[in-house]
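Q: Could you fold this chain for me?
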Amino acid sequence: MREKIISFASQFGRYGYMRVTALVRANGTLVNHKRVQRIWREEGLKVPHRQPKRGRLWLNDGSCVRHRASYKNHVWSYDFVHDRTHEGKTFRMLNVVDEFSRECLSIKVKRKLTSFDVLETLADLFLAHGQPAFIRSDNGPEFVAEQLRK
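A: Sure. Below is the predicted structure, expressed as structure tokens.
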């Protein structure tokens, strides 16, 4: 009985003990579902959790298309990274990355970074590398500032 239950559980990974009971019964063995459940628990069998479906990168009307980089200076992305020193003081790093070449264009490190620092870093990069076609960022408080959106 154990071998049948284990073989059905491994063959049909998403089936629980009730479905396996039905399979064992359909195979010609009379068995109570409580016995299958007991064997199921003793063998440590579990149904794996469902993986969440991946969300779309845009809405149905196509209003927010996520551009994939197809050449250098096509799409830049930037975000903050937070860390602490060994003394417990926090500092932030502004990272700007070219998504096509995976080159880190800039890392600005300060205890406190503002939207002005983001503008200053981007202006320096525009002068050094030229203006990219698209810039991607999250919606953090530094990135939704009025000056930065302009």
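A (continued): The mean pLDDT is 84.
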